[in-house]
């Protein structure tokens, strides 16, 4: 936007300045040339009288002295020609030195026509300026006076004026550039403050505001609207944080009471229940971790995950063990294929939640008597957790819609669920810097893969 403002303000001003400077430069050149022309015409008027007397008397010596002194003083060539066009008296001009243009002017003067006005001499012009006037005697042309002077003096004077004008234009343009940059900075200052405030809000500083008394009047309305929007966002987020904190506190008490009842009941059970009791304890501890994470997010005021190196094999093994009971009830087997270790730089709780959503979806649609394959791999610089069922799967055009919120295939409307499982997993993967990939493998079913950045142990 700064570039556009500079172009809008600077280009028209520069064009106007150049137009005015060009007109002034041409006027200066015309003025100097007019002054030189008037001086030459005045000198011609002086010599016309003397030339008339000398031509009448037939004595060139009468005027040659004055012609020589003029030529020496003004570095110009002046001469008198008779009626036939022959050089009659000269102050330095030799016969045959007249150029074609001067000779043509001499012919016109001897025919009784006065000299044309001298054209403007520009700095790049070459040659000399020549003025020719006829000498009349009782209305009859008896000769002509020629003054030929070098154009160096007016050319140098014009060039000097033009160089000074260019220097002034450069200084004015520099001042215009400075003024336009200051103006653009003044106009865009509220925009910069708006960017800074938005960046601050993005980083969790919800109290960031902009002073609404700065900048041009046109931007103050936008500033006030932004401040109102920021206040509304802060109010909504505060409500969310309060709700999350209250919900976390309210859930921790019944969860603690539930775990205490499990411990109390475990004392009256025989050893055959030890595995079930331990799994119940683990689920309770996992729910406690989720509540702690939720409470920490609410207190921090933002949803950043705590990243650490996590072995995905341990995560998958633990979560598969927790889901085996559900799988047995549904008549589905879970097969795990994993390397010795698969370290990833991520948040364990978020990965567990995403994996739970994916395997819950797989067990929900896997036919009884089939197998759900869970694989962990490290292909290159990322880790992959894949869950593949052997249900009816999805059509190719439905795959990209599978991760949308509340979307369900028309064939599965009678299956319990809300259509949020894969959508939640997708959001979690994006928050962790990973991605989710849904595909239809050969042999039927659906394959959902979680990709996470690999880490080092």
Automatic annotation (TrEMBL):
Domain Histidine kinase: 246-456
Membrane-crossing segments per the record: 162-184
GO cellular component assignments: plasma membrane
One Pfam family matching this protein: HisKA
Gene Ontology MF terms in the entry: phosphorelay sensor kinase activity
Catalyzed reactions per annotation: ATP + protein L-histidine = ADP + protein N-phospho-L-histidine
Highest rank taxon of the organism: Bacteria
Protein name: histidine kinase
Organism: Leucobacter ruminantium
